[in-house]
Amino acid sequence: MYKRNPYVMVPGPTPVARSIQDAMGRETVSFHDPRLVAEFKALIDDLTTLWRCDGIAFVVAGSGTMAMEMGIVNIASDEDRVLVCSNGYFGDRYIDICSRRGFKMDTIRAKWGETVTADEIDRRLSEDRFDVLVLTHVETSTGVEFPLRDLTRMMRDKHPEVLIAVDGVASMGGVEFYMDWGVDVMLTCSQKCFGISPGLGILWAGRRAIEKRRGMPPLNASYVDFEKWIPVMKDTVKYWGTPAVNLIWALSESVRIIKEEGLENRFKRHRHYAKAIRGSLSAMGFAPCCASELASPTVTVGLYPDGSGIDDAAFRGAVYDEGAHIAGCFGDFAGKGFRVGHMGNIEPNILVSAVAAIERAAIRCGHKIEPGVGLAALQRTLLEG
Asked: Does residue 291 share a domain with residue 369?
């Protein structure tokens, strides 16, 4: 019998819309082809305008981790002090990047499932001098959303001299944010809320970040240097490193979809779908890993009930066999639960199919729930929208 590929419900890659796949499948052309040059320029302009950036948007072939490194090395010199806030696995990755770069660094870590707060950051910045603050908007390992708006207001009032770099890998394009809130660097990658295949790092650098880089000595790196890429982003006929031609076609189509939907509508849709997913998992007896006010619109962690006897690998394998691919957990939550991504260009039928697969797998693994309980909760919330 015909069986379709499982729905990709991990926190990236995310499902790729047909029109984006078609764009990605366009004929590969030279990066000097005037059609690509014009579309690439329009794409950079759209990214800069949509997220209200007073500097430059960068689209560079590479991973989200590459974008993380690019985001910090261009605004922190050897003489600067960097404060890194971590809510989990990927916050710790930024600590590792800064440590390997040899920055003068201090850290604030939250318990898994919780978040560093604006008040904690205020206290630490008031105790000592720091030049750069680094944090994660949505922690992919826990599904916790950092209260970014609260932070930027506090920073403008009390620490306006400190530059802010934000890992928006699991948030940009799905969670409320604009550069004019007061962030200097924000970054993401193509396979999350933009709904494209992996392969692009996307980064926004505000005016202060660009000025900081220009005042710094030469970097001990070239590929991630703003100064190498700024001429290309300003005039896309120019060359530094070979652009990912077909992914640029795809990102251009993704941004067209975003513009058609409208950013504010997109943000509301992500929050609505997240509420529906959380309600369905709760109805099936899976516990949240964080308080509801911290739960992100793009990733949800469901923890297995105490005493359920559910084997993590067996359960996720069963979900895959039933038609959806969900992710395992990291760190403190490893083996104790699973992660569901619900970001990008998904729609209700995908959510219904994914929840149905989770529900069938749970029952097959011996979890005592009534068939349909998770789907009913999901549908009730979806119908509220």
From this structure: yes
